[in-house]
Amino acid sequence: MVDKNAQDWSNYWQGRAGESAGEALVGVGIEHNEKLAKFWAECFAGLDKSSNILDMACGAGSVLRHANANGFTHLSGVDISADAVAAMQRQFPNAKGIVAPVDATGLADGTYDLLVSQYGFEYAGSNRQVLAAAREMARLVADNGQFIALCHIKGGGIEQEVSGHLRDIKDMTKLGFISAAKAVFIALDAAEKSPTLVTKTAYEKATHLLTVPRNKLIAWLEAGQTSGSEIHKLGQHLYSGTIDLFSRRKAYSLADITGWLDGMQAEIDAYRGRMQSMRQSALSEKDARNILAVFADAQFNIDHPAPFYLAGDNKPAAWVLQARR
Ligand SMILES: C[S@@+](CC[C@H](N)C(=O)[O-])C[C@H]1O[C@@H](n2cnc3c(N)ncnc32)[C@H](O)[C@@H]1O
Q1: What pTM was computed for the model?
Q2: Contact 26, 230 (CB under 8 A)
């Protein structure tokens, strides 16, 4: 059974954002970040270029991109979303892609010299599943190998941004534009097919009911507070697409039009789901220690979890988790 989290991520990687981004955390300040590139370059320093590197919950391969840029060629990535793995392999055709959950990869014991994860394995789900993922990762690391992860941190900068995005999604969806627009198209279709006083009055009423959500959506888009964000782009696409459908409605069936509006709703829902899963996957210090304790139990040397800061941030962006076998 595909769980909701996995489904939301697959929708993301299939959708417009996934196609163009090649990054999973777009809009929260980590894409093409030099501090991150430096962090990973330091992790790779001193490793033989033929080392086997596995990226857990690789998405489109952000960490593998750093490995590739540093001359490593034996690259593999695990992700629950086949679309993420395909996006990763479009960038790195020679990398091995494994579509699997991080807590049950089916890969052989002790295969990887370096196992990495960036905002990845902590998406496994419940605490129990995240600890199962930790056991799985410990199992996959070769003798003398290492595990290094950057994980979402509770109370950190990304969690704060994500909470802001969730508020923006709430603000936009509470305007009720999609349902009001749908009602207009349905009433218009009925009035055109059977132009009676009743259907015409129903259409006028639906149009009237759309006025407030439409004006509020325009005001929300123009207010500029959310400019550049994913939800702002979705709002713009929703508004301009609806206007376009209305002006060219004769070219479409009612089912096409309502299907498009339902599709927009699904994109917004998936975005909300993805933001919620980001927030839920944030680890407290205790969670981070519990994960490292799994590696200690598997005879690894562990470091204390350390906060990681992106340049200019006063709140940490991640936990650094490290263990050596
Ligand atoms: C925030 S993204 C990070 C992707 C990539 N590491 C990066 O830094 O761009 C989280 C990734 O975890 C994947 N994912 C979510 N739940 C998973 C699970 N249970 N097992 C494997 N991958 C999972 C998603 O498909 C998504 O690609």
Answers
A1: 0.83
A2: yes
